[in-house]
């Protein structure tokens, strides 16, 4: 099962972990827009998303417990990238294959790269 979706969902959980570390909170409310979608094959969609759902089970248990460092969002985000690099090697279960771990190592690489880019334009 490939992980090729859910980047927006993963990112939301990552920022929530950073906000929690910094003593802030997030509020989610009703949608701002009405998103009308084209027709879907829901079984095919579910099959494509199953790996992400299984990964989220582990991530959503781990993220509230992870100990981050830093006093800014960028520091907390970098701390999360470091912690996630280590944690994905510890997760177990059928979904935690070498390609899944590689996906999250690529995500943490991109997280660090994003912080470097933001620091250059700030």
Give a verbal description of the structure:
- It is a single chain.
- This protein is 61% helix and 0% strand.
- It has helices at residues 7-21, 42-62, 73-87, 98-121.
- By secondary structure, it is mainly α.
- The relative contact order is 0.15.
- The chain has four helices and no strands.
Question: Which properties best describe this structure?
Answer:
122 residues; mainly alpha; globular; 4 helices; 61% helix
Give a short synopsis of this structure:
With 122 residues, the protein is mainly α.
Mean pLDDT figure:
92
Sheet with most strands? none
How much of the sequence lies in strands comes to: under 5%
Number of helices: 4
Distance between the first and last residues' Cα: 39 Å
Low-confidence stretches: none
Give the helix level as a range of percent: 55-70%
**Secondary-structure element sequence?**
HHHH
- Compute the gyration radius: what is it? 16 Å
Topology overview:
Blueprint: H1 7-21, H2 42-62, H3 73-87, H4 98-121
